[in-house]
Amino acid sequence: MAEPSSAALNQLRDKIDQADKELLEVLRRRLDLVAEVGTIKHAEGLPIYAPKREANMLAKRRAEAESMGISPQLIEDLLRRMMRESYVSEKDVGFKRINPELGSVVVIGGGGKLGGLFVHLFQLSGYDVHIIEQHDWDNAPALLADAGIVVVSVPIDVTEQVIAQLPPLPKECLLVDLTSIKQAPLAAMLKAHSGPVLGLHPMFGPDVSSLAKQVVVVCHGRGQEKYQWLLDQITIWGARLHEAAATEHDQAMQLVQAMRHFTAFVYGMHLKREHADIEQLLQFSSPIYRLELAMVGRLFAQDASLYADIIFSQPDSLVRARHYLDRYQQALELLESGDKQGFNKTFADVADWFGDFAQQFQHESANMLMMANDSRSN
Q1: Burial classification of residue 352, based on how many CB atoms lie within 10 Å of its CB (0-12 exposed, 13-18 middle, 19 or more buried)
Q2: What's the pLDDT tens digit per position in 117-172?
Q3: Does residue 110 share a domain with residue 164?
Q4: Last residue of some domain: 222, 244, 266?
């Protein structure tokens, strides 16, 4: 059925189309300016992400929008989306090479997704990069002979084995790993190599378009003064560094990664066993459930072995899972007994524990829910 229209309505729509074209021209001009900014940042070795500049700019634009009768949140949403695109554009220009005297960069597992991402970043920074995969191991001694940095990016369950099999590295060579657990790999690197050692955990997937605002956890090993250049280089790539002891990191990862992925796995398994109709669920879903379902679906769109490694490699995963089962059983008992008062009391206790973070998360999730709702298709 055709949408009813009138001459006046069509005239207004033509004007809207023209305004949209003008908006596209402004966006094109802004992207061109950003490209120029990226060139200067590349030359001067400046990070692509400048948090103070971004915060000040957003505050000014919000105030200006409000004075013009435009929703401040609308202009912030538009600018944040444009800035995300800008970071990608700036990245494509390249980055300054912080350590021009460095020997070759060797990425073991550089053919994988995460390793490949770091290969690309090092190449954008002008380093000489080589990749070692399993079939290249016979050539490893020759490739590693003049290495300035060796990055280990292999599955968790073989990381220690690969580190132990490394041939002797140049004394000043930096040995780094990118796994999501840190204690065991860090200990293995310190044992295998007498030179500088560093443990890194990129808190993002290999599908990110830019490292701007992404977090890289830093677990110091040995010789920080000899690998500070790498931390500076990662900062220039746009990432934020978070320093932590390896034990602290692994304890946090049990909840941040292992238990979260395990819970999503169980819920996905439950939906399958209940013969749920996903298409029907989407038709009846609220934005929050759609977002939750999307996160579960995202898990099953990826490599099972990756998540198996994350879950099974955490030493206390089984203990944490049993604790979670105990809490689920406690909640189930409230449901079985019809104890709404007990539910409310437990709810209030947990809400009190969250404190101000509950309101912060409510605000953050509201933006995500709007985006999830906007992306719905008929």
Answers
A1: exposed
A2: 999 999 999 999 999 998 889 889 999 999 999 999 999 989 999 999 999 999 99
A3: yes
A4: 244
DSSP readout, 56-78? HHHHHHHHHHHHTT--HHHHHHH
Give the other-Cβ count within 10 Å of 9's Cβ: 11
Q: Which pair of structure tokens corresponds to residue 359?
A: 């309101």
CA-based nearest residue to 104, from 148, 48, 169, 55: 148
Same domain for 38 and 75, yes or no, is yes
pLDDT in tens, 255-304: 888 888 899 999 999 999 999 999 999 888 888 888 899 889 999 998 88
Amino acid making up residue 293: L
- Give the CATH number, domain containing residue 192: 3.40.50.720
Rounded to a whole number of angstroms, the CA Rg of the chain reads 25
> Domains in the chain: how many in total?
3
Q: Are residues 184 and 108 in the same domain?
A: yes
Determine the residue type at 91: K
End position of a domain, from candidates 30, 58, 90: 90
Under the banding of pLDDT at 50, 70 and 90, the label for residue 186 is very high
Gap between the Cα atoms of 233 and 38, Å rounded: 15
Three-class DSSP category at 147: strand
Is the model's pLDDT at 92 over the cut of 90?
no
Residue 294 falls inside a structural domain: yes
DSSP three-state, residue 206: coil
Q: Which domain holds residue 201?
A: 104-244
pTM for the whole thing? 0.81
Residue spans of alpha helices (H) in 301-355: 304-313, 317-336, 340-354
C-alpha 189/C-alpha 52 separation (Å) is 37
- Quick: pLDDT tens for 42-87: 888 888 888 898 899 999 999 999 999 999 988 988 888 888 887 7
Measured from the Cβ of residue 375, the count of other Cβ atoms closer than 10 Å reads: 10
Decide if 322 is inside a domain.
yes
End-to-end CA distance of the chain: 16
